[in-house]
Isopenicillin N-epimerase
Amino acid sequence: MVASLGQAVRHHWGLRDDILFLNHGSYGATPKAVLAEQRRWQALMEENPVNFMRRVLPPALAQARADLARFLRADPGDLGFVENATGGVNAVLRSLGFAQGDEILVTSHGYNAVKQTVHFIEEKSGAVIRIAEVPFPLDGPGAITAAVTSNLSDRTRLVILDHITSPTATIQPLKELIAVCKSEKRLVLVDGAHAPGMLDLDVPAIGADFYTGNCHKWLCAPKGCAFLWVAPDRQASIHPTTISHPFRTGFAEEFSWTGTRDASAWLSVGATIGFFDTIGGLPAVRAYCQGLATEAAEMLSSAWGTRIGTPASLRGNMATIRLPERFRDIPAQTILDELWERHRIEVPVHHFGGDPWVRISAAPYNHIQEYEVLRNAVLAYSGTASDRN
Ligand SMILES: Cc1ncc(COP(=O)(O)O)c(C=O)c1O
């Protein structure tokens, strides 16, 4: 099963053969069969847009929501479709009321767009952002829990936790974190942008008040397919950022119509989930990706003489590996430019705590030889691409 992934399934995607695509994590990549399903919905819509919007879309969307709910082990009534995790976070933050002095806690590994949304709320309400500084690299989950716990106070109204962090590719210990964070007056929003498809999810069992996730990353859905799950007792106060006809008709209904739009990415979610059966099933794919991420990370760290950012227990389909010391003072953009322009390698690089890190993704179509090219490119790094700019 596992041996039939990698190069053997790459033809399912439209990725160019002359690039090394080691950054599935940023935007995902959608298989051709799923894109065909999306286009089928778009063609159906254009045959008669009025018929589609009024008669075809409502039951089709209810079916898509039911398919996604089954996958997330959630109740379809607790799910709203959004375009992306940023949209899910915005819907929650803009719906909740904050007062002067209220604190919204995020971690230093949190996603920038989410922090910017909190800054917007700061300006509007007088609430303040508080950042729990989580150290990195990490040797275990304890430092994350300690950082979050020590930043909680009576003023903390909302805690925003990543399920899997973006810059440091760390799976957060959500159960422990939610156990210490949640209370009657303190809500928890989980940013699960990377989780669907990478982790086996039971969203209600996580115990958060709000959970948003992207289907367009590790579930490989068309871009613009994401969801917001809200615990039943919190739904009355949460509304989509764009209010439209269904206002006050119930949580899931409000998110079903936010004005005229192309819903084909959402409508393709059942086909997306089904796609994995054609390449061996999601559990086998997950095992392949996690195994490949670990194999590649160990190979890179050993060749470069550096460390992996997190232990295997906190890693999924992504891993961060520190770049050699001589990269410390080179801007991340310069390193990125050379890897792309000279080697056609697509991989994110950034500095965290002053140290340079590369984040690798391992998707079903990746294979170990691709990371060997990255290994050699870093060892041979010359900086000449940036010299040309
Ligand atoms: C942790 C995290 N949150 C939110 C996002 C935003 O995702 P989107 O651009 O799909 O809204 C990302 C994207 O990489 C992410 O890594």
In short: The domain at 2-30+281-381 is CATH 3.90.1150.10 (Aspartate Aminotransferase, domain 1). The mean pLDDT is 96. The CA atoms of residues 171 and 291 lie 16 Å apart. The chain has two domains: 2-30+281-381, 34-275.
